[in-house]
Amino acid sequence: MVHLPTTSAHLNRHKNTVTTRSRKHDKLRYFGAATILAFCIGCLLDWIALLQVKNEMVSYADEIQYWKQEALVLLGNDQRKSPTQKDRIEAMHETAEDRHIDIQIPPYSQEESFAGCILFLNQNPRLTEWIAYHFFALPLRTLIIAYDPRTTERATALIERWKNVISIIEWNDEDYLPANWTVGLEPDLKEKTSLATMTHRKRQLTFSQKCHERAVEMGVKRTIIIDPDEYLRVNPKVVPATFVNTSEPGHVTKMFQQLEAPNNTMLVEQQGVTYKANCSVYPRVQFTTLGPSALYLIPKDVEYLEAGLVDPFYFNTLRYRYRNARIMKHAKGLVYTMHETPHQIINLHYPLDLKCLKSAYSIDKSPLLVNHYIGSFEDFLHSFRSDARNDALDFVKLRSRWEERARGYGGTEAFHFHLRNPLVRDEDITSWIPAFFAWQSDDVARTLLRDTGARARNSNV
After folding, report:
1. Could you give the count of Cα atoms lying within 13 Å of 224 in the half-sphere of its Cβ?
2. In this structure, what DSSP letter does residue 273 have?
3. Keywords assigned by UniProt (predicted)?
């Protein structure tokens, strides 16, 4: 046997090798321990969240019982009257005086202003606030409403007060849908989309096209394609107050006119920021019913403050002040007709498809945002119960559906979702109410807004 001499270098290399291996093992042990600890913490938080959810459910026993009774009425399974139904119906009725309100008109003509297109399904509680805000901010001077055939409450009486200052048109199916328009429609088996949903989408797309065409006929260049639970507003993180004063009526039109001026140096068109295109889309941010509690449970009143000019409990734009940090999957926006020829609308989110993609769709670049409000459970129940896309006419399933949406499509565990998508307090839109009252007289403003959220009464959800 040959014995090799053991040198100092040999020993050092051996020692270093052993030390390196030891360190690797130590790192693996630390990593394993950290993983186990993180798992245990996650389980503990899940357990705490479950306990708090159970406690919350117990504390809401009275609310749940009330809503079960309310659901029987709204779903048509019981002829008993809701405890507040009489008050709600009376709140929706117009009086002769309402048709002679002296409403201040924005300093822009109908042609300079915006048109709006709404496919309407029992959304009266949302409509008053939606019209008032957009009449003030855009301004909205042309509105076309198409009634879904499932509608049981038309908005005719509610919108009467606005007809002296807004050109309002009401349509039924036969006013804009061609004969035999459902021929050839089939369910999308690959995407698991029902025939009812496919029919609903076809109705939406056709209505948007016909509404846009009518707006162009009336000389209106800009048409917003958003829903009654969505609000188009200036993004103050991008547009400075020195450029656009959001307390001025018609400030969105003023912003566009300034941006389109030949000598404009603010928000110059660039990659990701477009405002002169035929189509502009803007990020949608979802405002939830969740509050700022540690585990983001649904509190009884998210933002129920003392009433000032109005009671914020009945206004989506005032009551809900927390939104998801990330934007929603699909944007919403407007079409802009620079000439007299209407566009061909092929998508509700990106109306002109690829021509829309140059516009801003990140919060840090977009001059405008679209606020999307889930609203109260009663708002959801009142309209969604008749929605063609609704496949759950059971109270428990409907409430579960609302709670899932209220958490921003985050599933049933709010904690998990908001760990990835935290809530952000965003009150930028709320200044419209004092500005609206300052613009109109107090009496006129209160009359115009008096039935906002009438169907949210007595609900602490």
Report:
1. 30
2. B
3. Membrane, Transmembrane, Transmembrane helix
